[in-house]
Amino acid sequence: AVYNGKAVTRILSSAFAHAPNLTSVTLPESVTEIGDSAFSGCAKLVAVNVPDSVTAIGNEAFHGCANLSALTMGNGVVTIGDRAFYNCGALPKLSIPDSVTSIGRHAFYGCVALAQIHYAGTMAKWRNIVKDYMWGDDIGAFIVHCSDGQISQDN
Predict the structure, then answer these.
(1) What's the predicted TM-score (pTM) here?
(2) 125 SS3 class
């Protein structure tokens, strides 16, 4: 995507925060970063497609997107920020690429419908991701499906 003659490489902090009629987002491959609170409070947002080019999802990037129910996360994501998907209560499943090395505090807090996390890597690699001890507080009873088995929420 191009804006004012320049390629769009990141979505700035609060760029689309509280956009009242935003229902879906498909980011172009030129984007490498989603800024803090970029889509925070977009109550009608139901679908997000994050391309492989994105390496960082900022703090509170999708905070309070209560109707978000479809999320495609590209294979380039390395960091998921604090409260990135906080109170995205309609999100039933999530696919996390094996490129992820850190998941921030309360990243999925309030994702009460979350039942399945599909992780592209092994169980050992999942366990080695730097996860804030509160990364998954107040979410549904979930199972992490890895390439070589599954891990219940309690493990």
Answers:
(1) 0.94
(2) helix
